[in-house]
């Protein structure tokens, strides 16, 4: 649980940080754009500026104050004029004023300009400008109503009777230069003549007139008393740029809000899409850690990762490689768990079998020893020798068993170094067979040896290879009745492999014995004499053959005989 929480928290923190960086970036971009836009607005209408705009455009030099050149140029380009007053109304500086100014403004000079309007066609804006260590200065910015100027030049030529604007070429040019328009209206609001770009309606309602007011920066009109016709002229508002409208404060707030909401939704989606499968896989790994070698399942014990058809669900496809690896890991761990269990069982089997096989001869040894020790009987020399011989035989069997057991473990742990030599295999096998033939206890068996037609020199460890062949011939001798024919032959397969075949026509084996033949400590059911074998012979034989990079194959039929084939590289 702890892990899941940490994971989720990490995920959210990272995504939120990313979004934050994104938002801050957006804000910076917006600030830059906002700045350039207000700069643009000021360029077309100085009245839009803040008081702070002027502080570094007005120079204070001891007692002289004057406007900087760029401010004067800007005012001039807008047909405006500037008047700078101190807080007592004394004029400190002026620029481009259309009239002769007094040195000192009275209150009425001031109010007339601001509210009373000295002349109808003038408009003033006023700022208080703060400077360090002094009373604020007052700055007046005055402009002519440009529509009024245009109207003035157009009115003299209007033909009121013909209801025609009758504009001169000069007036038209002037109108075009200012992007202005002019219209002649009847008292009912019908458009009689028009010039320039203005609303398309041919008959104005009161409401439409109101719209004209808001659409135009400057408007001027004049009504001819004789005819009742009205001429209207206007200069449209400078259209603010698209950015300007988008980035009004309210819009910005809305924009930030939607961005945040979108980012929050995005974060959840992101966490779900990438996080949820990871959580499932983490659960899986935890399962593995707890020894539960299975992928996590839903309540119905169905797979979370694959659909009913066994295909990986879309959500998990991104992690296909990871899932494959986890599946493999799970399978491997399962196999190991199974192997571990069988290994434990086999080991228990071995130990119980081994202790049984050691106990049987030991109990007979101790039995004979007790008999010899007993003072109740006097044993004859012949009897004593007989007992000693049995004890000797039993202890020899135990020694042999222990020796073979250590050998199998050494073989298994690859702790048995081979000392290979070049040997003529025909000669080598022939000697082993002769050894068996010469054994007086084997007189009732018939041995045949068939050598390979050519001499074959092979690279083997003579001691251990002899053990292999000895074991196999010994089995054929031991598990078959007298009269059995045992045939040993040597041959080659394509120059690089040699084969030693040991065949007998004896009792053969049941299928079930064949299957377990090479298991350690396994003895066939056809062996009733417990003292004559350890059940390790073939296990050791197989391991020794494998150490020579060879293989062993057994074919057998009950009552028909057995054939053992040993194939080893030359
Ligand atoms: P050890 O060889 O250690 O003395 P062992 O002979 O019983 O003991 P293996 O050589 O591994 O053990 O043989 C396993 C079993 O296979 C034997 O107990 C016997 O039942 C069966 N067996 C092996 N060879 C033959 C054979 N040629 N004919 C019939 N049965 C055989
Ligand atoms: Mg054997």
UniProtKB/TrEMBL annotation:
It is found in: Membrane. Residues 353-570 form the Histidine kinase domain. It catalyses: ATP + protein L-histidine = ADP + protein N-phospho-L-histidine. One of its GO terms (molecular function) is kinase activity. CDD domains: HisKA. The chain crosses the membrane at residues 12-33, 252-271. It is an enzyme of class 2 (transferase). Its EC number is 2.7.13.3. Pfam families: HATPase_c, HisKA. Residues 319-346 form a coiled coil. Keywords: ATP-binding, Coiled coil, Kinase, Membrane, Nucleotide-binding, Phosphoprotein, Transferase, Transmembrane, Transmembrane helix, Two-component regulatory system. SMART domains: HATPase_c (SM00387), HisKA (SM00388). PANTHER family: PHOSPHATE REGULON SENSOR PROTEIN PHOR (PTHR45453). This is histidine kinase.
